[in-house]
Specification:
It is a single chain. The chain is mainly α. It contains 16 helices and four strands. Helix content is about 65%, strand content about 5%. The two termini are about 30 Å apart.
Length: about 300
């Protein structure tokens, strides 16, 4: 029940990293939109806002400019200069992120988004510095937006559960892989359009999402290092977290030596067994907790 409650899409819910990611994107967008409006109301040309403020956080194709602004490989994925661009990315992240969080828990969303954004940015840089057709526009080309991270989340979700159906009112639902395939085809077809850099970055994010799931199935959780880093940062200035192991033993006001710890034995219900079997089917047996493995063993012994 606790896990289900944490998966609900309630703003501010503890453990809901999807809502946290969307809140960060929305906050950054509002901040820069207010700056833009301030330039406009002050009579300052918007080109100066773009050149003197906004461009310092978007990813440039020119490697010389990138050397002066290395942080843009991270910041570009949080930048949106248009409402529809922002809204489109938010919808994609919301839809696929909700499914992914439901399948894998909340710890994969933000690391996968960051990995996808970095992979998309790197492929964008490589393409504009290698292909002659793109190098012509390299000095003035930049890329921005959360699309690469959104694509990584979309591909990872599709690889994990390709048969997951959305819009059930339409002939029983549309399989997830159909929607993702259409999105990829449109992206590839539009590389020759005016937003070539953005679509190339999408492909980089898609490749990262696919590799991320392959590694996850092999037992390599690439989200762990980033989550550990965030945990370390969040507790860096929290003295209570540093000393919790030391103070726990002092909280006992009676002798606990030789006392057997309390052991919770969960009830076995058919629904509980079905949920565990679904988890095995989607993620594999190795992702079961010790409690879930014990339930399966007890159920097998009862049937025997």
């Amino acid at each position: 029940m606790d896990n289900r409650f944490k998966r609900k899409m309630t703003l501010g819910q503890d453990g809901n990293t999807l809502v946290l990611l969307l809140a960060i994107l929305g906050t950054v967008f509002c901040l820069f939109i207010f700056l833009r409006v301030g330039f406009y109301l002050s009579g300052i040309p918007l080109e100066q806002y773009r050149e003197n403020i906004f461009s310092w956080f978007t990813l440039p194709a020119d490697l010389g400019t990138l050397a002066k602004r290395p942080w843009t490989l991270i910041t570009y994925m949080f930048m949106h200069d248009g409402v529809w661009h922002m809204l489109g990315n938010v919808i994609w992240i919301w839809v696929f992120g909700y499914i992914l969080q439901d399948l894998t828990g909340p710890s994969k969303i933000i690391p996968l988004f960051l990995y996808g954004g970095v992979a998309g940015g790197i492929l964008f840089l490589i393409s504009y510095n290698v292909f002659p057709g793109l190098r012509l526009n390299m000095p003035l080309t930049t890329v921005e937006g959360a699309s690469a991270g959104a694509m990584a989340i979309a591909i990872a979700t599709t690889v994990l559960a390709p048969g997951y159906r959305i819009f059930p009112m339409i002939n029983g639902g549309i399989p997830l892989w159909v929607i993702t395939l259409i999105y990829i085809i449109v992206d590839v077809a539009m590389i020759s359009s005016s937003n070539s850099g953005g679509h190339i970055a999408h492909i980089g994010g898609a490749l990262m999402g696919y590799v991320f799931v392959l590694q996850l199935r092999k037992g390599n959780d690439w989200s762990a290092p980033i989550n550990k880093f965030f945990y370390w940062i969040s507790n860096l200035f929290n003295p209570d977290k540093k000393n919790w192991k030391k103070t726990a033993k002092r909280d006992f006001h009676y002798s606990v030596k030789g006392t057997e710890p309390y052991k919770k034995i969960p009830n076995i219900t058919q629904k509980r067994i079905d949920d565990i079997l679904d988890k095995i089917n989607q993620q594999g047996y190795r992702y079961l907790t010790e409690e879930e493995k014990d339930i399966l063993k007890r159920a097998a012994d009862d049937d025997a």
